[in-house]
Amino acid sequence: MAAIGTFIDGAYVGTYNSVGIGITQDGYDLILSLKEEVINESDQYGGALLDYFYRGGDCQIRCDSKEYAPGSVAPYWPWGAWGQMTNAALPIGRKASAVAKSLVLTSTAGTPAATAPASLTATMAVLAPGQSSTLKFSTKLRTVPIFLQLIPDQVAGDTRWFTTT
């Protein structure tokens, strides 16, 4: 009997700069945002969107680590030591790509995700701009929110946010 559909599940293990991120609350969210220039506002068609030009996009990955560990804390604040805004060696004005690190997500063997994709590798991942992440200091579990911007990189002649295998 044939399967009803193609359904994929399976956990992924993540590393940031080759250090484990730890157990996540609900896996990893891959977020792709299209950038476009719309063709609209015409005498004949009013404000209707007639077409658009593809103008690139943005790619982010988000997760909540249930572990307060080096692999989850490092991407939470990449600009220096915790609580440090700047010093002579780490001035304001650095590019995000200068502090970006690799992010690798690897699927669990034996699950449908093991081939769809088996892994995702982003060579330039860094704290996404405009983030206001909350880290709770209380008697409750300290979950570390991680929201990473994937910066495009040149991979085998292509400009990519990530590669998959």
Topology:
Blueprint: E1 12-16, E2 19-20, E3 29-39, E4 51-65, H1 70-76, H2 96-99, E5 101-107, E6 119-127, E7 144-150, E8 153-155, E9 158-160, E10 163-164
Antiparallel strand pairs: 1-2, 1-5, 3-4, 4-7, 5-6, 6-7, 6-10, 8-9
Largest sheet: 8 strands, antiparallel
| Shape, per Cα inertia axes | globular
Report the sheet-strand fraction.
Answer: 35-45%
How many independent structural domains? Answer: 1
DSSP strand count: 10
Q: Structural class of the helices, strands and pairings?
A: mainly beta
Describe it:
It is a single chain. The chain is mainly beta. It has one domain. 7% of the residues lie in helices and 39% in strands. It has helices spanning 70-76, 96-99, and strands at residues 12-16, 19-20, 29-39, 51-65, 101-107, 119-127, 144-150, 153-155, 158-160, 163-164. Strands 1, 2, 3, 4, 5, 6, 7 and 10 form an 8-stranded antiparallel beta sheet that branches. Strands 8-9 form a two-stranded antiparallel sheet. Strand 8 and strand 9 (158-160) form a beta hairpin. The two termini are 29 Å apart.
